[in-house]
From TrEMBL:
This is Unannotated protein. GO terms for molecular function: nucleic acid binding. Residues 241-309 form the DHHA1 domain. Residues 23-163 form the DDH domain. PANTHER family: BIFUNCTIONAL OLIGORIBONUCLEASE AND PAP PHOSPHATASE NRNA (PTHR47618:SF1). InterPro entries: DDH_dom (IPR001667), DHH_sf (IPR038763), DHHA1_dom (IPR003156), Oligoribo/pAp-PDE_c-di-AMP_PDE (IPR051319).
Length: 323
């Protein structure tokens, strides 16, 4: 860690330790495993220390079924009950304040706002910004914070941190997988984690209906060898016909990125409001974070995304021009 990250962590510890009021925790809209796992880890750890905290995320307040193995899901609070002006608020895996959705006003009104994240594109919207682009997951940052707070790990906390770690490293396959990642995984695994069950629910188990959707989507996948680019589009019509949700298709990008002929993989997912949620992955030298940032999004060099209000063809044109 750099001195600035150490300093920011120390400030975060001071703010948490000096607060005697309820601490408000929030992750980004439609949370993934890192956002949900890191938030729940700190939520449970604080509660076990007798500290009051509340954890939530914006509508749609629905946890995707494949995250059912995380601990403390029943301790989440609906966003309608989230404090409007929290004395101390902490965000997890939130790259920019708008990613908080309906909880954005609470963040804007918070007396102290701690931002915990690992995205290089983070806009540093907090009063204390603990941003470590070298961390494999926001869960790694939370583990450091717990250590500095002197809060010991428990099995439930370890389950959530492990889920955060394996989700953002793709089960230790991505470029972010370092010796430090394996060291943390070893520490967490010592708590007798349900590793096979977590791996299956998070990555391998799907409804039969989703497999049908995946088959149709892959059959329409397009390879553009001259640009080393592969993409596919998921429409609301496809989702409706297969009785699937966008949450279920979260891992589809990891299938698309397997195309040997392509350096950059892309999925364009149509939202209910007609906007296009774009997921980008790079397996080479292309920096997809640069493309995402240029279009109002963010992420990492090898994994990024943004929301487009253009149609699919126009959105693809923007991406092609940036490759």
């Amino acid at each position: 860690m750099t001195d600035s990250i150490e300093t920011s962590l120390a400030l975060a510890v001071q703010a948490i330790e000096s607060s005697d009021e309820e601490i408000a925790l929030a992750c980004h809209i439609t949370p993934d495993g890192d956002a949900l796992g890191s938030m729940l880890a700190l939520h449970l750890a604080l509660n076990l220390q007798g500290r009051k905290s509340i954890a939530s995320f914006s509508e749609p307040f629905v946890v995707a079924d494949h995250y059912r193995g995380l601990s403390g899901l029943d301790a989440l609070t609906p966003p309608s009950d989230y404090p409007a002006e929290p004395p101390l608020m902490i965000t997890f895996d939130v790259g920019s304040i708008d990613r908080l959705g309906g909880l954005t006003p609470s963040a804007e009104s918070a007396r102290e706002l701690i931002v915990l994240d690992h995205h290089v594109s983070n806009t540093r919207f907090g009063t204390i910004n603990v941003i470590d682009p070298n961390a494999a997951a926001t869960g790694v940052v939370v583990r450091r914070l717990l250590s500095m707070l002197g809060i010991p790990l428990t099995r439930d906390v370890a389950i959530n941190l492990y889920a955060a770690l394996i989700c953002d490293t793709g089960r230790f396959q991505y470029e972010s997988t370092t010796p430090d990642v394996f060291e943390l995984a070893s520490e967490l695994a010592a708590f007798d984690l349900p590793i096979p069950e977590l791996s299956r629910s998070l990555f391998e188990e799907h409804r039969f209906a989703y497999l049908g959707l995946m088959g149709e989507a892959i059959s329409k996948m397009v390879l553009e060898p001259e640009s080393s680019f592969v993409w596919l589009s998921l429409t609301q019509d496809m989702l409706s016909r297969h009785d699937c949700t966008l949450d279920e298709a979260e891992g589809l990008i990891d299938i698309v990125r397997r195309a040997r002929e392509a350096e950059v993989a892309c999925i364009l997912k149509e939202e209910v409001d007609g906007s296009i949620k774009v997921s980008l992955r790079s397996v080479g030298t292309a920096d997809v974070c640069r493309i995402a940032q240029a279009n109002g999004g963010g992420g990492h060099r090898f994994a990024a995304g943004f929301t487009s209000h253009l149609d699919v063809d126009a959105t693809l044109g923007v991406i092609r021009a940036a490759l």
